[in-house]
Write a structure and sequence with these properties.
The chain is mostly helical. It has helices at about 35-55, 70, 80-115, 135-160, 160-175, and strands at about 60, 80, 195, 215-220, 270, 350, 360-365. Among the domains are: about 15-55, no CATH class; about 65-110; about 180-265 and about 355-365, no CATH class. The N and C termini lie far apart (about 150 Å).
Length: about 375
């Protein structure tokens, strides 16, 4: 009885371990001629199983096309299977998805920030040139850049470095003649400068400068200078013009105590003598006690004619009455004048502010 596609009814069964493979060699499956049928079957089964689960499918990937994200999810040693590649791709896709979500959130926040940045700007008129009615951040930044560049150009053109200032001043003074040795070349005309150095040999008897001090004068009232000897300067109250009203504390029309200072006028003194009218209002209280002891007054009186003399006698032929004596008393009311003795000598009191002496010099072209 023959066998057809099954083992049932087969009268003869040959073991698969006794049957040899006579086909071509299949290196990829590890099959070659002479292998037993059972080995061939096992190799095919393992290959099919590994193919089905992917563990048997080996792949070769060109490193040049691998990105760092995928490469980081692949095994670092051994063969790479299709399962490894699939897992790496899935992990990479999940990572990308997470990053996309985070980026979308960042974009939302950035859009909000941009909307806030592009909000309306309040700018001083003309500060950044001409801007649109509702300038954007780009408009403002561009205007700032333009203004800043113009400022830098202006500084580079019209200003100098502090480190170069001394050299440039020296060069300027040298260009004005005299090599910068003349004192007046360092002075502004008609300004009284305090000077604490020696004047010996630098000025003549009138106060005019000599040598390097030419055109410089002592402020002694000569050579067209103000007399600053023993005087301090004060701003004039007339001839200054201006639109701001003068303060009442210095306005001559506000008080008789406010002098009207004019150019070169002199006011004030080193000492002040008070008058009686400048003394504070006050009184002097005096008490005088007069004691008169009890006493009486007695006198003799005589009736006489109209020609009675002052000595009590009568003029002959003119007596008209008889002599008689009488007594009487009187009340006295004494008067007392009190005079306060004068005090004080009327001397002056000093009126000097604390000061330090110096020479005043002036450059007059």
């Amino acid at each position: 009885m023959s066998c057809s596609n099954c083992f049932n009814g087969c009268s003869q069964i040959t073991s698969d371990q006794c049957v040899r493979y006579t086909g071509i060699d299949v290196p990829v499956l590890g099959i070659q001629q002479g292998d037993s049928l059972s080995y061939i079957q096992q190799a095919l089964i393992e290959f099919l199983v590994s193919t089905l689960d992917g563990s048997g499918i080996k792949v070769t990937i060109d490193p040049a096309i691998l990105c760092p994200v995928v490469s980081g999810n692949l095994p670092t040693c051994g063969d790479i299977t299709i399962v490894d590649v699939t897992n790496a791709l899935i992990k990479t896709a999940c990572f990308i998805q997470t990053e996309i979500v985070a980026i979308q959130a960042d974009i939302t926040n950035i859009e909000g920030d941009i909307a806030e940045i592009n909000g309306p700007y309040t700018l001083p008129s003309g500060c950044l040139g001409t801007l649109p009615t509702n300038p954007t951040t780009h408009d403002v930044v561009q205007a700032v850049v333009t203004t800043l560049c113009a400022f830098i150009t202006d500084v580079q053109t019209n200003y100098v470095l502090l480190a170069d200032l001394d050299t440039l001043i020296a060069q300027y003074l040298s260009s004005q003649g005299g090599g910068g040795t003349k004192v007046y070349e360092k002075m502004v005309p008609y300004i009284a400068y305090e000077y604490y150095g020696s004047i010996s040999g630098n000025f003549d008897g009138t106060g005019a400068g000599l040598g390097d001090w030419e055109k410089v004068y002592l402020c002694n009232g000569g050579n067209g200078t103000p007399d600053k000897r023993g005087r301090v300067a004060v701003g004039v109250t007339s001839g200054m013009n201006g639109t701001v009203p003068m303060a009442s504390a210095v306005n001559p029309s506000s008080s008789i105590l406010n002098p009207n200072y004019t150019l070169y006028s002199n006011f004030g003194s080193n000492g002040v003598q008070l008058t009686e009218g400048q003394l504070p209002n006050h009184t002097h209280n005096n008490q005088v006690t007069v004691t008169i002891p009890p006493h009486s007054h007695t006198g003799a009186f005589k009736a006489v004619s109209d020609n009675w003399d002052c000595c009590g006698g009568s003029t002959p032929g003119n007596a008209t009455g008889s002599d008689g004596n009488s007594t009487g008393s009187a009340t006295l009311t004494p008067e007392v004048n009190v005079v306060n003795a004068a005090i004080g000598s009327g001397e002056f009191h000093p009126n000097n502010q604390p000061a330090i002496g110096c020479y005043y010099i002036m450059y007059i072209p």
